[in-house]
């Protein structure tokens, strides 16, 4: 996961959700997003990303 840049990580995360991939995979992506302190919100299909 550390080899992915932030944009690729987020793109992968949202794509995994859209494709309804395995929950464990999505969970791993979400953990890495939190580790990097990237805040994400999903509100009725709209995606908001904030970085410190």
TrEMBL record:
Species assigned in the record: Paenibacillus thermoaerophilus
GO molecular function: protein kinase inhibitor activity
Top-level taxonomic group: Bacteria
Keyword hit for Transmembrane helix: no
UniProt key word Nucleotidyltransferase: no
Protein name: Sporulation histidine kinase inhibitor Sda
Keywords annotated in UniProt: Protein kinase inhibitor
